Amino acid sequence: MTSKIIPKNSSQLMQQKQFFKIGDIMWAKIGKYPFWPCILCFDPYSNKFIKEYRENNNTLLQLHVRFLNDYGRRSWVKNIYIFSEEQNVLSKYPQYLSYFQKKNALFKNWTSAIEEAQKLLKLNQEKRMTIFEKTYTRTTNSRKHIGSNGSKPQNMSVDSCINSKSTKTYPLKSSLMNKYDLSDSIEKPKVTSTLTDSLKSMETKLKKRKIADIQAHNNYISMEPSKFLPIKFNNPCGNVKIKDIGDDVFNPCNCNPNQSDPCGPNSGCLNRLLMFECDPELCPAGDKCNNQQFKKQLCPTVTPFLTKNRGWGLKTLDIIKKESFIIEYVGDLLDGEEFNKRMNILIKKRNENHYFFHINNSRIIDAGSKGNFSRFMNHSCEPNCESYKWIVNGETRVGFFALHDIAAGSELVFNYNFQNVKGVTKIPCQCGAAKCSKFIGV
């Protein structure tokens, strides 16, 4: 294939900007690999396909390409040539023969890529891009977790309640990772064209690849959610007061400290029945009191994990018995005014990832920037957990409790009970439960 080299002089390169078009078939080289057939396309992050860079005080150009027959890998390249069918590139670069002396897998992929490029040359550029290219918006792990009872998590960090010493984080790369883009894709409109029979099979093959790419884009979730600050207890913000119940409301129970499980689930503890935690200084059972799960942070071991199609979730590593305390929902504790401010900011930014949990109209928990692993809990139409409001030392707090016995390794889920509003688009539910309502909420 006759190769027309792109001029390397900076002034010549600047003139070449108008020469390149999206959909051009090119040769491109990275590192020690041979020149590889590719198609010129947009970078999903910048929506550009050509950019300038500085090297040895010279202004040069880089182009963004997608390599053919290489799992959709993309890259910015500077060593690039115009693709042509007329002459074999090995005659121009005989050193590449060393790569293919054993006719290995690399050679097979390389020759397949050349065949694909030759077939693509028979299509016009618009048709090529209809098959290969998409327009991207820079979003990662878009998780719609909206509702009065909680918001879907986007982050992974170390929860104070979990026995873990790991604080290592992994920054999201600014380039595409392997076979998948980190962005949601929007297909360009279809273009009708008349193809010969010899090209129809090629079109079918490319359409199948396109569908596979779209599925990969839609199913891919960022391997590292955005950061949040792990905290043990609610952090009051603005004018909100940490205590919202007077001390005169609390009364000590009459539990016998000599019972096998004083103040436990089957003890008949009056405070437990009213969802009040016992005060260790007033409870007759003292240190033996088993109605202090919020204070003592008596949690099973839980950990975030990446689900198949619902982003990040939370699972238990321990067996959990029915009615057992699992984890508290914590974050910034807001009053109504501060909540409205934060909500307006999210609306202006068109951010649909909310982490609010409404205790009442004047007390709202926001786990957006601070929280624990409870923020990873997904919605389910058949939940195994339920949230309850408890009074702890005069403060209303929210905890999740097991609706039934839960096996180790199970995902922890609860019903968001999101109240749908007329005129607002319902959120599709993907819980997979047998009795799934198909939408989150009622």
TrEMBL record:
Any one of the GO CC terms: chromosome
Gene Ontology molecular function: histone H3 methyltransferase activity; protein-lysine N-methyltransferase activity
Occurrences of domain Post-SET (ranges): 425-441
SET domain: residues covered: 300-417
Protein name from the UniProt record: Post-SET domain,AWS domain,PWWP domain,SET domain
Entries under Gene3D superfamilies matching the protein: 2.30.30.140, SET domain
Entry's localization field: Chromosome; Nucleus
Keywords: Chromosome, Methyltransferase, Nucleus, S-adenosyl-L-methionine, Transferase
Keyword Cell division: no
InterPro entries: AWS_dom (IPR006560), Post-SET_dom (IPR003616), PWWP_dom (IPR000313), SET2_Histone-Lys_MeTrsfase (IPR050777), SET_dom (IPR001214), SET_dom_sf (IPR046341)
Top-rank taxon: Eukaryota
Domain PWWP residue range list: 22-77
Ranges where the AWS domain occurs: 248-298
BP terms from Gene Ontology: methylation
Record keyword S-adenosyl-L-methionine present: yes
